[in-house]
Amino acid sequence: MLTKNDIKLIKNLRTKKHRILNGMFIVEGRKSIIDFIDSGYSLVKLFSVNEHFNNLNSLKLSYFDLKKISHLKNPDDHLAIFKIRNSKKINEKKLIIGLEKINDPGNLGTIIRTCDWFGIKDIICSQNSVDCYNSKVVQSSMGSLSRVNVTYLDLKEYLKSKSFIKSATFLDGKSIYESEISLSSGIILFGNEANGISSEIEKIIDKKITIPRFNNSKYPESLNLASSVSIILSEILRNS
Amino acid sequence: MLTKNDIKLIKNLRTKKHRILNGMFIVEGRKSIIDFIDSGYSLVKLFSVNEHFNNLNSLKLSYFDLKKISHLKNPDDHLAIFKIRNSKKINEKKLIIGLEKINDPGNLGTIIRTCDWFGIKDIICSQNSVDCYNSKVVQSSMGSLSRVNVTYLDLKEYLKSKSFIKSATFLDGKSIYESEISLSSGIILFGNEANGISSEIEKIIDKKITIPRFNNSKYPESLNLASSVSIILSEILRNS
After folding, report:
1. Whose CA, among A167, A176, B42, B221, lies 20 to 30 Å from A74?
2. Confidence of residue B182 (pLDDT cuts 50, 70, 90)
3. Does B230 touch chain A (CB under 8 A)?
C-alpha cells in the first residue's frame, strides 16, 4: 500500500534539501536497485508493480500509482528508497577524477558510469556541483553510483594540500596524444560545462592537457563534458 | 510582435509530424543560431528579447513571451525558426558513423557534436531513430548539426549495397586498442541504447569491435552510447 506519507516523502526526495534532511534518495528500475543492494546500500522501502522482486519484501502498487510517484516519464516497475551513505575515504594511490562545478545531472551520471567502466574508484566534486543523489544522476549512472565513491569537498583547499600530480583539461593544453598521460595516480580535473576550469583552480594545476580538434576549423568550441572524460580515460587506460 | 499563429507554429514544431509538414525547425540561443546561418540554413523568423542580433531583422518580444514559446526551461534571449534542409549526398570516401535506432535525443546531439569535433562529415541513421531536428537534439549538438550531414535511410539496404568496410560495436568484439581501426573510410555502426545492434544488421557486419572494460568485474554492463562514439573516434583519429 502506498500511503500519503510515502507519496509526500518520495516527492520531497526530488530536492537536495529533503534528501539531506531525510538522509535518503530514490532509485528506480530493477537493475539499478539490485546494484545498490549488492553494493551494501541500506534499503528503506521498495515499491513494485509486480510483487516478486528477488525475495525482497516489496510493497505492491498499481502502475497508475507508480506513475504518480516516479521521477521518470516512463517508470520501470520498481522504485526504491535507499539511505544515503557517507563517502568513503579517498584512495589517493589511484587515479582520481575531479569535477569543478559540474552542473548537468546527465553529465555527472554518465561520468560516474564511465569511471566505473574504466576502474576509477573516486570522483571528487567541488561543493557547488550537482548532487550525485539527484534522481537524474542516479538514473544516468545506470547503477554505477553504487560502486564509485563520490566525495564533495572544498576543491581548492583539497588540491592545495596534496602533492600528487594535478592535471586539468583546457582548450590550450598539451595534446593528450602527445603528452605522457599514462597516469596510475594523481588527479585529472574537468571544469564546468560552460566555463571550464576557474582561474582559482588553474593556479594550482601542474599540467594542462587537451583533446585536439581534428577538423581544421574553430568549431565546435568544445566537446561535451562527459565525452571529454570518456576520451581521456580511454587514452590513459590504453597506455596503462 | 508575437502573433497567435507564431505561438501555434512554434508549439507545433515540437513534434516531428509538424516539423515535416511545415519543413521547419527551432533553434535557440545566439551561438547556435549564428552557426545555422553561417552554414547556409534559411532563416524563416527570428525572435529576440534584445532587438539587436547581428544586424538581422528580429522580432522583439518580452522574456515572458519567450518563456511561453521556448522549448527550454531557461531560454536564451533568442529563438529562430529555420527551414529544414535536405540531406547532402553522403561522402563515401570518408569515414561515416552509422546509428541504428538511436533513441535518446541528448545522445544524438552529443554524437553530432563529437563527430563535428573529429571531422566526421556524415552520420547515417536508421529510419526508426530519433529525429535530428528534435529540439533536444538541436540543443545538445550545440550548433554542430549545422555542419554535420545527418541522413535517415533504410540501414540494412544501404549497407548491403555498399562494399566499404563495415565495423560495429559489440560487447564481444575485438578490443579497439588491439585491432587495427585506423580507418580513413568505411562505416562504424553503433546500436540502440538498450539493445545494441540488431541481429539483422549484425549479419552484414565485417568487423566487430569493442571498448574493453578495465575493472575486473562484469559491471557496468555497457558504456553510454555517446561516450562509446567519443572513445572510438578518438582512438581512430589518434592513429590517423
Report:
1. B221
2. low
3. yes
Q: Is B208 helix (H, G, I), strand (E, B) or coil?
A: strand
Between residues B94 and A2, which one has the greater pLDDT? B94
Domain positions in chain B: 4-83, 96-238
Q: Is A65 on the interface with B (CB under 8 A)?
A: no
A4 Cβ partners below 8 Å, 6+ apart? Answer: none
Among the listed residues A136, A107, A135, the one whose alpha carbon sits nearest the alpha carbon of residue A230: A107
For the structural domain made of A4-83, what CATH number should be given? Answer: 3.30.1330.30
Is there a contact between B210 and B173 (Cβ–Cβ < 8 Å)? Answer: yes
Instruction: Tell me the mean pLDDT in the region A100-118.
Output: 98
Q: Which residues of A touch B211 (CB under 8 A)?
A: 117, 234
Interchain pair B227, A223: CB under 8 A:
no
What was the pLDDT predicted at A2? Answer: 86
| CB of A234 less than 8 A from some CB of B | yes
Q: Are A103 and A115 in contact (CB under 8 A)?
A: no
The CATH label, of 3.40.190.10, 2.40.50.140, 3.40.1280.10, 3.90.930.12, for the domain at A96-238 is 3.40.1280.10
A145 touches A170 (CB < 8 A): no
Optimal mutation site among B177, B227, B235, interface A, most CBs of chain A within 10 A:
B227
As a residue count, chain A comes to: 240
The sign of the dihedral angle between the CA atoms of B201, B141, B66, B26 is negative
Smallest CA-to-CA distance from A159 within A200, A122, A211 is with A200
C-alpha cell at A75: 517508470
